[in-house]
Structures are given as C-alpha cells and as structure tokens.
Design goal:
Elements lengths: L8 H12 L12 H5 L3 H15 L5 H5 L4 H16 L1
Length: about 90
C-alpha cells in the first residue's frame, strides 16, 4: 500500500473485528469502540500493535487513546502512512 492509496476499509474492518473479537458487520465507521463495544486501554493497545504490524507504522499510546471509531483509525493511519512516505 502506498501513502497515496486509500485504506481498504474491508481489510481494516476485519483487522479491528479480529482484535476486538466481534463480528466484522458490527464495525461501522461511526460505532464508538469504548461506549458501544467496551474497549479498554489494554485492548486499545493490542489494536495499536496489530495496526502497527500490518501497516508498518508507529502508533504512540496517546494517539490510540484518542481513537474511538473506525473513521478515527482510518484518519490516523492515513496520517501515519503519509508521514512515513515523506
């Protein structure tokens, strides 16, 4: 994947669903991971590690703490991918 290419939302959805151990269909762009799925800080860090490995980017703990939706994750990853390509 290049920094210019959009993220594959289906692939991202499945990665998130695998880590959170939920059905991929339940991961919509607007669902709030904390409020709606009960994601805690430990699970958020597990998600960050999975995303780092898959997309080959570095996600700081404070950055993943600000992420609450799939849309937030997409935006964070796109920023990271652009930065790493520069």
């Amino acid at each position: 994947m290049t920094a210019e290419a959009p993220l594959d939302s289906e692939e991202l959805r499945e990665l998130i669903a695998d880590v959170l151990e939920v059905d991929g269909e339940s991961i919509t762009p607007e669902i709030d991971f904390v409020r709606d799925l009960g994601v805690d800080s430990l699970l958020a860090m597990e998600l960050a590690v999975t995303l780092e490995r898959h997309y080959r980017v570095k996600i700081e703990s404070h950055e993943i703490g600000d992420v609450r939706t799939m849309s937030d994750i997409s935006a964070l990853l796109l920023r990271k991918l652009r930065t790493s390509a520069a």
